[in-house]
Amino acid sequence: MKEGEVKIIGFLCNWCCYAGADLAGVSRFQYPPNIRIIRVMCSGRVDPVIILDTFLWGADGVFIGGCHPGDCHYMQGNYYAEKKIEMAKRLLKEAGVEPERLRLEWVSASEGERFAGVMREFTEEIKELGKIKFEKDEMEAACIAAADYRLRILATKEKELLEEGNKYGEVFTRHEMNRLLDDMVREEYEAKKILLKLKKPKSVKEIAAELNLKPNVVFRHIMDLRRYELIEVHEIRDNTPTYVAKVEEGGE
Amino acid sequence: MTEELRIGVFICHCGINIGGVVDVPAVVEYASTLENVVHAERNLYTCSSDGLESIKSAINEYELNRVVVASCTPRTHEPLFRATCEEAGLNRYLFEFVNIRDQCSWVHMHELEKATEKAKDLVRMGVAKAALLEPLEELTSEVTPSAVVIGAGISGMTAALSIAKNGFHVHLIEKKREMGGMLRRLYKLYPTEELAAEFLEQRIKAVEEHERVELHLSASIKAVEGYVGKFKVILDENGAEKSIDTGVIIVATGAKEFEPEGLYEYDGEKVITQLQLEEKLKRGDSKLDGIENVVMIQCAGARGEVVGYCSKICCMNAIKNAKLIKEANPDINVFIAHNELQAYGEEYELYYRDAKKAGVRFLRFPLERRPKVIKSEGKLVVDVFHERLQMNIPLEADLVVLSVPLVQNPDAEKLSKMLKVPLGQDKFFFEAHVKLRPVDFATDGIFLCGTAQGPKDIEESISQGYAAASRATIPLAKGYVSSEAIISSVDEAICVGCGICESVCPYGAVEVVETEEGRRAKVTGVKCKGCGTCGSSCIKRAIKMHHFTDEQLIAQERTALVTEEVVS
Ligand SMILES: Cc1cc2nc3c(=O)[nH]c(=O)nc-3n(C[C@H](O)[C@H](O)[C@H](O)COP(=O)(O)OP(=O)(O)OC[C@H]3O[C@@H](n4cnc5c(N)ncnc54)[C@H](O)[C@@H]3O)c2cc1C
Ligand code: SF4
Ligand code: SF4
Hints:
The complex is a heterodimer of chains A (about 250) and B (about 575). Helices cover about 50% and strands about 15% of the residues of chain A. In chain A, the strands form two sheets. In chain A, strands 2-1-3-4 form a four-stranded parallel beta sheet, with helices on both faces. The radius of gyration of chain A is 21 Å and the shape is elongated. Chain A is an alpha/beta fold and about 250 residues long. With about 575 residues, chain B is of the alpha/beta class. Chain B is built from 16 helices and 30 strands. In chain B, the strands form ten sheets. Chain B has a five-stranded parallel beta sheet with strand order 10-7-6-14-25. Chain B has a five-stranded parallel beta sheet with strand order 16-23-17-18-19. In chain B, strands 2-1-3-4 form a four-stranded parallel beta sheet, sandwiched between helices. Chain B is elongated, with a radius of gyration of 32 Å. The two termini of chain B are about 30 Å apart. The chains are: A alpha/beta (about 250), B alpha/beta (about 575). Chains A and B meet through α1, β2, α2, α3 and α6 of A and α5, α6, α14, α15 and α16 of B. The structure holds flavin-adenine dinucleotide and iron/sulfur cluster (2 copies). Flavin-adenine dinucleotide (FAD) binds near residues 153, 253, 254 and 456 of chain B. One iron/sulfur cluster binds near residues 507, 510, 523 and 545 of chain B.
């Protein structure tokens, strides 16, 4: 893609949206040439890690196309897709990127005209937002947070928590669920950002200043990261410890 | 395995369909500069016999081990190109499709330069994915040549007999002591008015006498394991445990009548259901001695009152019973208070007219103003708001009959969990597709028929019984099933056995099992349909969705975005 043009990557499910995109072609419905389409069998296949990686590598917009609710070739894949994309949007927001750059649409195999319409509209929207801007560290933190097991459990189990409750039988309301998700996502994201900062040894105070976080918040994360053995004490400088990330073998 | 990658790229003009918009020679030239590409060419029609020949000869000449075709859409042409690769000795999954017609030249017809640019990007992405492709094999497994039918009502008996006549052994499993289901309790059947007992007798006899039907009465299902071709059904038959191996399973567990407790002064004596009326008539009380006025109320508990749906059979059933009463004793006044009246098809329409001729009176009420039953001093009055007259008509009644809907059996939920097949919104068993696959479940090898799937009459139940039997006979007759090659697999070294994957798989294809290393997820290849939802949900990212792996998708996406190296 030429510099200056907005770049959009689409992940379309084979059975509905990809077929709808084909139909747009067969019917010669025209739309802007900014999108590059990647075929997957089910929208449920699209991992938030991959979505965020796509942004990290410079996509200005990411489009996910699946079957209408109830029409999924695999029964429920599109439902899970929706939850994962909500999670990815939350992380985008944390990384300071407009969540509207990520869009999920249900397009059936017979909606060729609609596919072209959605493409025109989405491309226009992305053009208005302009080229994507983010701090590399922040998007990297979002990527790593998307791979975190706690967030992944939440994204998948949301329905059960809403409908059947947790193991204590407490059923969450939609509002509580949203708050829980927001909190968890922020926590994970902050932790991952701190972890990235600790590629070089730093004290709590230094991190707090760099990331614009309260020292007590940073301290709590540091304790957690130590518990998970992701960081270690580097040295004690004037009675103040500095920490550093452990080098993971084969890590990024 | 680090064989040298040798990728061949074939770009199709598709006549002028692609060639008229995209600068194909430029794309070919570009493709030949890409890493790992050892050969690139263009064809007027790659799918023509000439085009396919040139793929095959290029595979040999250039020792290609990956093939990329950029042309129309994989949805129509992938099988053809895969087969071509296979003919030239290349594993069919080492082929990658790039769509530059339906999703490029046809939709950017007035932007020639940008369309060419996009085609180059798409080819680059395809080559990047091709480099990461791995050979895959389709799995086949043998089919146990017998069937299990659960439920010996009319639909289950029909299905069992039909499979047996096709030459396969059938286990017919019934929880009651006798076969027949709902029909055992009915008096006469619409539209023929034959006695249900006589109708049943012949059919039960045919089932009992067939050498290949093995009956299991007073039997309940305790567990189901396995997959199409190799199911194991564990039964409790009269207190004894039995294990049955089977290739396919048919669910024919029927439905029951809704109990209208608390509605319309229902008491089971003066206010009864249609089924109770049938039993009364069957006991020989067909003249309904001492009764002068009968009022039937349609849609009782249905269509928004308790359940949302229309039970389909109640209109015809009320017409039948009203007509039978009227014919047996013309002095009785019979009213049917209804909202809509479903008497579809010529036969049923005529039947309805006969009932009118016999003197049955019909009153239409609006759904928002359903009739009220008032009981005072032992007397019953049904207050019906007459839609056309726009006034209330109080009908005295000695007997009120409620046409209540069919509802799912309470134990169906347990069965659905054991079989891992879904129940729909109305709690009936839920077919794979209402039009295209009406008697299949999404899970291979399990089928359904009769009222287990929703209210229907005998004719429809029998048709479905035949349909399910014929669908179920396909794998039995074939003797083997082959499954997708594009499936997922679990890296046991990373998996922690949390079971999230199991909870999202719609086919029960991935399950957590005990292994020597502890609890780990395992994919049963034949069950997996390759959606990849487990992979993107796995909390440790331990699942590999073959042919759409994380690495492959990431390679495509990154390659699309990074253009620096490719200044052409
Ligand atoms: C009042 C009334 C009147 C009707 N009149 C007519 C009519 O005149 N004409 C007409 O065409 N249709 C009529 N019908 C509809 C007719 O009864 C049904 O279409 C028919 O009975 C459906 O047959 P089936 O085999 O699907 O289910 P069923 O007859 O319900 O049989 C299901 C069988 O499965 C067994 N079963 C259930 N669960 C299990 C389990 N877990 N394990 C093992 N076995 C199990 C049950 O015991 C039962 O024997 C009437 C229905 C009602 C309620
Ligand atoms: S890929 Fe889909 S069908 Fe296969 S095991 Fe995973 S969730 Fe189940
Ligand atoms: S979700 Fe992943 S870690 Fe959990 S059981 Fe499945 S494969 Fe194992």
